[in-house]
Each structure stands twice: as structure tokens, then as C-alpha cells.
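Course assignment 3, question 2. Fill in each field.
Student: A.L.
Task: Predict the tertiary structure for the chain below.
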Amino acid sequence: MRGAVLYGPRDVRFEERESPRIIEPTDAIIRTSLTCVCGSDLWPYRGLEPINGPTPMGHEYCGIVEEVGGAVRSVRPGQFVIGSFATSDNTCPNCQYGYQSSCMHREFITRAQAPVLRVPLADGTLVPTPGVPSDDLIPSLLTTSDVLGTGWFAADAANVKPRSTVVVVGDGAVGLLGVLSAKQMGAERIIAMSRHEKRQRLAREFGATDIVPERGDEGVKRIKDMTKGVGADSVLECVGTQQSMMQAIHCTRRGGYVSYVGVPHGVELNGEELFFAHVHLHGGPAPVRRYLPKLIDQVWNGKIHPGKVFDLTLPLDQVGEGYRAMDERRAIKTLLRP
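Answer field:
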């Protein structure tokens, strides 16, 4: 089997890898229908996150079950399934609290940019769809595996409520689907912070009422001006840099909520500054499994169309170009067809 392997900065290759097989009785093997490149994949791709030798890549996936271990009960061969980037037994205390991405038996999926994938803890990780979907529905279903689930968690963790004012920091796929999620949760005003015309258009299509291109202190000032000096009720931080985190905190009203779902790199918080900001902070790896049934239902029934974040489709063997296009911001998100 061939799959994507990262060798070093900007060096992704499509090459022979060992074919997955059942190792534990709780495993499942799925034939990947679609996979994609995630914004978080760009951190190691750019050399900003170390890797230990050649590293198989990919953590967003959906497809048909080919084989299951002897202990698997909730999925069976022939079903179309979707799973999270973090496996979960869905029974441990952390899972029961709704934080399956911190399952006490968690493993991270790291080999999904390939035609076949082994999924541990299949019963707690994989969710079947009502049937085998049509081809045009699969891209939107794929987003539930991570990018939509993460955008939904960002809105949920930021306590987005009907008639609230929401700011989204970050115009990547997660930020754009954070806009969509806030709209679904009833936000009245959604301000997307973006300086890229194509992403601005999609943000508006997903529900943004305002676009703010400024960043940093200028961006904060603009948000304060737009909210009569108060700040937003909820701010979604979807980038993971020091600037984006501080921008999010400073855009929030006193007593408001900040969620952070961008994988942090170099983010440090000053205790005294945070103390006087008077905001709620909540975030981390999105517990996608918590939301999968609801999000699958919304996509299946045509209530939302998150697959619009894919603006470049390539065969899987051109995965290297998919990374380059996102790195150079020629693409919002690359869809890969095995």
C-alpha cells in the first residue's frame, strides 16, 4: 500500500507503507473513501513541529468497513463510517464527561492519508451513517471527522448563544466552520477576522455578518469600536499563535467566553493580564466523537454544507501538491481521493 509520509520540512512523499491489519480485537480496518490535508498538518510540514524520522500523515477520514476484530460490536463490514482524529472507548470517565479526545485509552490517528486505515477502539470511535452516502455528500461528511467537529467545539466551548455577538479569529477551514457553527447555534452577529477575499466570501456564505481584516491591536480596536467599547460575547480562537490568542482575549467582553482550538505554538499567558481580563477560557483537542451523531445527521439531511471548505481536489498520489497549495494559501483545504 502507498500513503503519505513526511520526511522533513516541505518534503511529503507518496510511497510504499505497510498495509494495515487487525492487531487488537477492538480494531477495525476501513477502506478510505476520502481524506484530506488539515491545517494542523502544516505545522510539522513547515518544520515548526519536530518529527522523529519519516512520519506517516493524515488524521481525517471516512470510508467503508472492510474487517473488524473479534470484540467489535457496533460496526460491521460494509458500513460507511466516520471517526475522530482521537480514538476513544467512549466508556471511560473522561468520555462519559464528553471529552472523548482525552479518553484514558486514547490513541491519535496519524496514517489516514492512505487508501486503507486501521482504527483502534472501533466501537467507541467510529459512527456509522444511515446508509452508504452518495458521492456528492461524502466531502461534507468527511468534515465531521475533524474540521467541522473542531469548529463546532469552538462555538460550544465559547458558549455561543442565540442573539449573541461572536468573533472568529482565523479564516482557515476550522475558523470558517466555526462561523457556520455559530450561525447554527443562533448567533445574531458573527464577525469573521480575515484578509483573504475568497475566505471572506465563504465566511459570509456560512453566516458571517461582518468581516474585519485588521489583526493584533488594530483588530482588537476595530472589534471594540464595532461593539461600542464592550467586546464580543464569544470569541473563537482558531489559529494557535501568541498574536491570535491575545487578540481573542482582548476582543472579549468582561465575563465573556474565549475558546481555543488552534494547536498552540509558542503561546504563553501572563497571569496578571489574564486575571484582569475577566474572561472564561476553554479549549483543547476537540471532542469530535461527542458531536459526530448530531453533525452527521445535519449533513445527511442537508441542513448544512460544510464540504464547501474544500476548494482543491487531488488524487491521493498528488498529496505533496495538496500540502504546497495550503502552505502557500492557494487553497483553503485540500480534498484527497484515494
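Instructor remarks: The chain is about 30% helix and 25% strand. The mean pLDDT is 97.
Grade: pending
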